[in-house]
Design goal:
7-stranded antiparallel sheet, 3-stranded antiparallel sheet, globular, alpha+beta, single chain
């Protein structure tokens, strides 16, 4: 019999990061208050369970860390434990050298947990964790470690060891619009000035683990304007970046929020903004995200939701 106390969790937040103006990829960075670094909500039990499943069934696909990532990985774990026990003491508690998750009943002996420190860190939070390390010889940052259970259509093995520029080669307009600002950000990011941003996608799959899907050419769909609300998902990435004080590496966190489209049915202003962003994102982005088969029905559905009630179909 499970006698664990029932711990209330905050509701899932809603982010709608699209502006009613022509589409343009941009960083849109905001200062990050460290007390809001990590977000725990009612999806916490489900998402941690999904991480455990993925790490058990296909560990190599969702976790990799190079030897040079060890120091930053341990630093990340230490920072996470300090943050979680301070800001979420009802969930995470330390009993001596053991960390206890009061919701999942997991106990982690911090001196003998037997995992890579970044692996354990990723099991504690809903966010995915990526470490970028400066390569002084090349003058660039490279991905050297990641716990990535919820990728938005990219494979960890294909990106490991790559620079920011090569990681984003497939992304339309990254080179011309984002490459230089991102490089400057990574070079100048201060320990005491972390930042956060959001990114969004519209997908026909609500799965958390999505390593593939971009650039499909043989893509067929049964999505129609009548079933968009049940078939299409708004997938938000809340991303944070902070420089680790000891290693000076950069920790990049990615938190996934999935909103099925029928949750937008009572949000006409949000639907209207998203319809504009989708319609104006450009052919290259549409093809890259494999959106062509679902685009027309999705935009039509959003426009209908965003129109005055007397004119809706």
């Amino acid at each position: 019999m499970n006698t664990s106390p029932i711990i209330p969790l905050p509701p899932v937040k809603h982010y709608y990061p699209f502006a009613p103006q022509p589409f343009r990829i941009a960083m849109n960075l905001r200062p990050l208050d460290l007390d809001e670094w990590l977000e725990i909500d009612t999806e916490f039990p489900h998402q941690l369970a999904e991480k455990r499943r993925l790490l058990a069934e296909q560990h190599a696909a969702v976790f990799e860390a190079r030897p040079e990532a060890w120091a930053a990985s341990q630093e990340t774990l230490d920072l996470l434990i300090a943050h979680l026990t301070h800001y979420y003491p009802q969930i995470y508690q330390r009993h001596g050298r053991t960390l206890v998750n009061q919701i999942t009943a997991e106990e982690w002996p911090l001196d003998q947990h037997g995992l890579h420190p970044l692996d354990l860190a990723g099991r504690l939070v809903q966010e995915d964790l990526c470490l970028m390390k400066h390569d002084p010889a090349a003058g660039i940052y490279r991905l050297v470690g990641a716990s990535l259970c919820f990728p938005t259509r990219w494979r960890l093995a294909e990106k490991m060891g790559r620079s920011l520029a090569t990681i984003h080669i497939p992304t339309p307009n990254y080179t011309t619009q984002l490459a230089s600002p991102m490089d400057r950000l990574f070079d100048k990011l201060k320990v005491h000035k972390p930042v956060w941003r959001t990114n969004w996608n519209v997908l026909d799959d609500g799965s958390l683990f999505q390593p593939t899907g971009h650039g499909r050419e043989d893509y067929k769909t049964d999505v129609t304007i009548e079933n968009v609300g049940q078939k299409i998902w708004l997938r938000i990435e809340r991303q944070t970046l902070r420089r680790l004080p000891s290693s000076q590496d950069i920790l990049f966190t990615i938190r996934i929020y999935n909103y099925r489209f029928d949750s937008l049915a009572d949000k006409p202003e949000v639907a209207q903004r998203l319809a504009i962003a989708l319609a104006e994102q450009g052919e290259a982005m549409i093809e890259y995200k494999s959106m062509r088969p679902i685009l027309d029905a999705t935009v039509a559905w959003l426009k209908n939701v965003g129109s005055p009630p007397t004119t809706r179909h």
